Amino acid sequence: MVSHPGTALGAHGLRPLGLPRAIGVTVDDLGLPRTVARSARGATAAHAQPPVAVAQIVEVWRVAEAWWREAPLARTYVSVLLTDDRLLTLFHDDTQAPADGWFEQRY
Amino acid sequence: MAPALPVACLLVPSLALSVALAERTQLATRPVVLVDAERVRVLDCTPTAARAGVRGGQPLREAVALCPALFVLEERPARTAQAAEALVEALGGLSPLVEAAAPGEAYADLRGLDGLYPERAQLAEAILAAACVAGPAPSAALSPRLGLADTRFAAHAAARCAMPSAALAVEPGTAAAFLAPLPAAWLPLNADALDRLRLFGITTIGGFAALPAHAVQAQFGAPGWRAWRAAHGDDPTPLRPRPPALERVVERAQSEPPLVSREAVTLTMEQLLLRALRHPRAHRRVVRAVNLRATSADDRLWERTQVLREPTGDRMRLWHAIRPQLEHAEYPGPIAALTIELGGLTAERGRQSSLFDAARVRRREQMNDMVRHLKVRYGLSPLARMVEVEPWSRIPERRWALMDYDP
Questions:
Q1: Nearest to B397 among A16, A44, A45 (CB)
Q2: Is residue B139 classed exposed, middle or buried when 0-12, 13-18 and 19+ CB atoms within 10 A define those classes?
Q3: CB-based contact B219 A103, cutoff 8 Å
Q4: Model's pTM, two decimal places?
Q5: Hey, how many other C-beta atoms are within 10 angstroms of the C-beta on B403?
Q6: Would you place residue A11 in the very low, low, confident or very high pLDDT band (cuts 50, 70, 90)?
Q7: Exposure winner among B71, B134, B227, B362, fewest CB in 10 A?
Q8: Do residues B11 and B105 touch, judged by C-beta distance below 8 A?
Q9: CATH class of domain segment(s) B176-231
Q10: pLDDT digits over B305-328, tens only?
């Protein structure tokens, strides 16, 4: 039998790639994004760009995983086309309030 | 029996000032400032001086104008470094995993010590006793404080709250509540971020912890996220233990009267190098880094670290690497003590040439050598390897990860 190594469980030294970035979003009555405020990479909120209106909701899908665990994962993904012709993939962390917990998912 | 706490923080606030005051205990309650070697700028001050408006960073002239009865002490860098090292050594006598975070601030991983010290109070007593007998200064005057907790940040905050020469433990699961009323200025954020917190009107760690995680991440980036987790009692910052003693050899020499000629210093250092290489620990091993220290008669310090591009155990090659440092050194005065430390000792190995695609193998060897070099120099591997974790996952950030490249 393999003896216990004595270290805490977990993937030591692994840094996930493509972590979502927090993003400012205002939502409509249905809870879908109305405007999106992105900040440049490395910039702080003080340097955030002005909000851009959403021209079209392209697609909405939901991912729910690990609901049997203490920290379930529930996300509503929204692919949006902005008025400046950029296509973004956002998601809302459904464990948080509708107006909070919006992230940009980069692949 | 109280549950074991895995992280200890041993702290001497204002170590440089404490070291200077240790020899003049009668000044402890008087307004005292510690100044740099040029006697221009205030480095630190006692609470009595602070009450008169004296602050670290002030020009000395301004401090004297604010408090005419000020006592001025000059910093003793060599003694401070010696005291800091003694604290780390004291923790090292109890746990093999010790991190020297800053002068006067050391952490130890206490996991696995329950067998030796079943009671937490015994362990705390042992650490404080070891810290109090260590060091060049009268140790009681340094009054180290001990914090015990289940994360690094909580242990540090506990040490800051502890009474001098006493321990304070934060029970598991209570770190967030313990940290909540403490000042936000203690958060592990840079000065700019702390300034912005102050402008937002956030003055306590609890106030910071109450902010939504995504807002903190958007404002302060990854360091903000780590600080937010730390404020919740879930500090993700790991301990970075220093290399074990087996991986280094230290040789010291003292000179009375102090050495005044550069040639004498160079010659003594050469003798020290010879002695260090003859040490059984260095036998059949190669050296990756050499640290040289010279302490002047008035406790000023000259220090250089030479990380070798290619590890070697050859005396002549080592000497050629460190000699220019000694020949161009600007010593702070007559030298009373010299120290050489051979670090990153590693097993000697031969180089096996490859029969296949020699250029590619050579490139990889060169890269591995360079990574080892950088690791010794900066303490961690700056290169990472991309690995597939769960390529099938619907969650993008779970598919790929970066792993430290450690040849």
A1: A16
A2: buried
A3: no
A4: 0.62
A5: 16
A6: very low
A7: B362
A8: yes
A9: mainly alpha
A10: 888 877 888 888 899 889 888 888
Going by C-alpha positions, the residue among B35, B82, B121, B112 that lies closest to residue B250 is: B82
Q: What is the residue-wise DSSP string for B259-281? A: E-SHHHHHHHHHHHHHHHHHSGG
Nearest CB to B395; choose among A21, A42, A65: A65
**CB-based contact, A62 to chain B, within 8 Å:** no
Interface subset of B 181-220, CB within 8 angstroms of A:
196, 212, 214-215, 217-220
CATH of B1-172, one of 3.30.1050.10, 3.55.40.20, 3.30.70.270, 3.40.50.150: 3.30.70.270
Domain parsing of chain B, residue ranges: 1-172, 176-231, 245-347, 358-404
The burial of B15, by beta-carbon neighbours within 10 Å (0-12 exposed, 13-18 middle, 19 or more buried), is given as buried
A46: which chain B residues are within 8 Å (Cβ-Cβ)?
196
B334-387: pLDDT as tens digits? 888 899 999 878 776 666 666 666 778 778 888 887 887 787 777 777 788 888
B396 to chain A: which residues are within 8 Å by CB? 18, 105-107
In 3-state terms, chain A is what percent helix, strand and coil (to 5)?
5, 45, 50
Instruction: Inform me whether the C-beta atom of residue B386 falls under 8 Å from chain A C-beta atoms.
Output: yes
B130-185 tens-digit pLDDT: 887 655 554 556 788 999 998 999 999 999 999 988 899 998 889 999 999 999 99
CB contact under 8 A, B212 and A101: yes
- Closest CA of chain B from A30, distance in Å: 21
Q: Which residue has the tokens 């086309």?
A: A81
Nearest to B219 among A23, A45, A102 (CB): A45
Residue A21 near chain B (CB below 8 Å): yes
**Tokens describing residue B157:** 């905050």
